[in-house]
Amino acid sequence: MSRTRFSGRTALVTGGGSGLGRAVALALAAEGANVVVAGRTPGPLEETVALVAAAGGTAVAHPADVRRAEDMRAVVRAAVDRFGSLDVAVNNAGVFRGGGPVADLPADDWHTLLDINVTGVLYALQAEIAQMRGQESGGAIVNIASNIGPHRTQSGVTAYGAAKAAVSALTRGAALDHIGDGVRINAVSPGAAATSMSLRPGESVAEREVRMKADSPLGRVAATAEVAAAVLYLASDDAGAVVGTDLVIDGGAAA
After folding, report:
1. For a Cys-Cys bond, which of 64, 153, 247, 249 suits 75, CB 3.0-4.6 Å?
2. Among 83, 96, 123, 160, the one annotated catalytic
3. Could you please report the per-residue DSSP string of the chain?
4. Dist. CA 39–CA 170, nearest whole Å
5. Strand order in the sheet with 10-14
6. What's the CA gap between 144 and 119, in Å, rounded?
7. What is the secondary structure of 72-94 as a DSSP string?
8. What residues of the chain score a pLDDT lower than 50?
9. CA 25 to CA 233: how far, in whole Å?
10. What is the CA radius of gyration of the chain?
11. Residue 232 neighbours by CB under 8 Å, 6+ apart
C-alpha cells in the first residue's frame, strides 16, 4: 500500500541532481510531496524532475548555490510562490575534498569543504527557518552529515570529517534554538552508500563490493533508498517527538 505522509506538503532538497539528493527527492514525491530540487547545475536537476514526473510525482528545479545566502533565500521564495508553503527541507548538498594527511591539505580544499558543507548548511537553515517559523504548521528540516567526523575517525579524511562534525553540532544547536518556533531539525549521518562519493579513485562498483565485504560489519554499502527512508522518517509526523538527533546509517561501521 502506498504511503502519503507528505501529501499537500512542499519539500526542498539541496543537491537534488544526483545520488542521495535525487533518491530523497524521488522518495518524497512518491509519498505525495511537491518537491523543489536545488543545485548548481541545471541539467542534473532537470533529470531528477523528469524522473519524478515519470513516476507520477510533482517536482520543479531551481538552480542555486548554497554558498550564497541570497540564492537560498531565493529558492525558498520560489518554493512558497509555486506551492504555497515550505514544510520539509533536506540539506543534502555537499562535497568531498582531500584524501591525504592534514599537513598536506591544500588551503583551497579546506575552504571549499567549509564553504559548501558547513556555511552552505547554515545559509540553507536560515532561509528555511525564516519561512517555517512564520507558518502555523511549522516545518521539519533534515541535514545530511556523515558517520565520518561526528561518529568515527578515518585517516586521510580529517578535514571532511571536521566539516561534517560541524554539521552535526550545528544541527543539534539549531534544533534547540528553533523547536519553540515549531521547526524540528535533525540530521542523518550516512556511511558508505551506493553513490560515486563512496568509490575510491579508479575503483569500480564491483571492486567496492569486494572491499565493503571486509570493511563493513554489514558487508555492503547502504542503498540510497535505505538512507532516504531514514530522512523521510525524520521529516515526517512519525518523528514528531524527535528533535536534535543524528541518525547513523552506516551498516555498523561506527558502532
Report:
1. 64
2. 160
3. ----TTTT-EEEEETTTSHHHHHHHHHHHHTT-EEEEEES-HHHHHHHHHHHHHTT-EEEEEE--TT-HHHHHHHHHHHHHHHS---EEEE--------S-GGG--HHHHHHIIIIIIIHHHHHHHHHHHHHTTSTT-EEEEEE--SBTTTB--TT-HHHHHHHHHHHHHHHHHHHHHGGGTEEEEEEEE-SBSSGGGSPTT--HHHHHHHHHHH-SSSSPBPHHHHHHHHHHHHSGGGTT--S-EEEESTTTT-
4. 21
5. 58-63, 34-39, 10-14, 88-91, 139-144, 183-190, 246-249
6. 13
7. HHHHHHHHHHHHS---EEEE---
8. 1
9. 14
10. 17
11. 5, 6, 24, 27, 28, 31
Q: For residue range 17-44, what is the model confidence (pLDDT) as tens digits?
A: 999 999 999 999 999 999 999 999 999 9
Q: Residue 200: what pLDDT?
A: 82
- pLDDT of res. 129: 98
Q: What is the pLDDT of residue 2?
A: 57
| The amino acid at 120 | G
In the chain, what are the domains? 10-198+225-246 (3.40.50.720)
Q: Is 123 a catalytic residue?
A: no
Distance CA 92, CA 21 (A): 6
pLDDT of residue 1: 39
Residue with cell string 512519525 = 238
